[in-house]
Design goal:
alpha+beta, five-stranded antiparallel β-sheet
């Protein structure tokens, strides 16, 4: 039997969102902050894909519903922060509106000409999955909630020439502290991540066998992350936090180690080695080797022979 397609709802404007929820017309067309307590009860027996033209920041407390990313379900049974970039798709089902908390929506045009327009793109957590949300401690939750309250107060004041500046200053504070708390989360969850790091290293060793390299090419970050049910950004941030190197740097380090071994112990040509390491063109291999070692493959071979 053919599986029923999941309904996809895309929100193009705040007016559209408010109309769906039965809210009045938005106060501002590019920015809003809303309390989940004011949302109507929304229950869906079927999965729904949701996406927006806006950055979304949600602060949820005691959400009874489930969000799904990939093959994983996540229950919001604690205070959490989630971040979504424009057009990012996530799947939800059941009663997915939290009983309390906040939703902030920011159109990219609201940030135009402000430093935050560029800075917001550096926060990798906007590309994390719902399953990788920020779990807040009691102290962190209190601080974050106070920032949301300040943004809400400013949003509902009469608009003047500094309204947007004040809102964006508080928003930048919120994002900066969220970045700090994510770093803390990587540290406090270190015991459970140690096992993942061991599995990651073992998997790299498997993928760097001659047979798999020549057949599949170099492993990529997205495929490795998906094997651990994580997004590429979260996986790389986690690996870098605990090892000092990104996932891509680990892949390249393993590649150079393998290349040096072949250059020093075999008489294979550079082209043959490049092919065995998964490169279609030997020039690409030689260029990467030069970047990583400050030597060409030929120069390295001569230095060890």
């Amino acid at each position: 039997m053919k599986q029923k397609a999941i309904q996809h709802i895309h929100i193009y404007s705040l007016a559209q969102q408010n109309a769906i929820l039965g809210f009045p017309k938005p106060k501002h067309p590019l920015f809003s902050i809303q309390r989940f307590e004011d949302f109507p009860k929304i229950v869906s027996e079927e999965k729904i894909k949701l996406s927006m033209d806006f950055y979304q920041i949600t602060f949820k407390k005691g959400c009874p519903g489930k969000f799904r990313y990939g093959q994983s379900d996540y229950d919001f049974d604690e205070g959490v922060l989630s971040f979504f970039a424009p057009n990012q798709v996530f799947i939800t089902e059941g009663d997915f509106i939290a009983p309390s908390g906040y939703l902030i929506l920011i159109h990219p045009d609201y940030l135009r000409s402000y430093p935050l327009e560029s800075k917001i793109k550096t926060f990798s957590f906007f590309d994390y999955a719902v399953t990788e949300s920020l779990i807040l401690s009691d102290e962190e939750e209190q601080f974050i909630e106070n920032v949301f309250i300040q943004i809400e107060k400013e949003f509902h004041r009469p608009i003047d020439s500094l309204s947007q500046d004040v809102i964006l200053s508080n928003l930048e504070l919120l994002l900066t502290y969220s970045n700090r708390y994510y770093t803390r989360q990587f540290i406090t969850r270190k015991p459970q991540y140690n096992n993942l790091l061991s599995k990651f290293e073992a998997r790299l060793n498997e993928l760097f066998t001659d047979e798999l390299l020549s057949e599949n090419g170099l492993p990529n970050v997205a495929d490795l992350a998906s094997e651990f049910n994580l997004t590429s950004k979260y996986f790389s941030d986690l690996i870098k936090q605990h090892t000092g190197q990104s996932t891509q740097q680990h892949i390249h380090a393993k590649l150079i180690e393998k290349a040096k071994e072949k250059l020093s112990t075999t008489e294979l040509s550079v082209g043959e080695i490049a092919f065995q390491l998964g490169f279609e063109h030997s020039q690409s291999f030689s260029k990467l080797f030069k970047i990583k070692t400050n030597q060409t493959p030929v120069e390295f071979r001569q230095s060890v022979n």
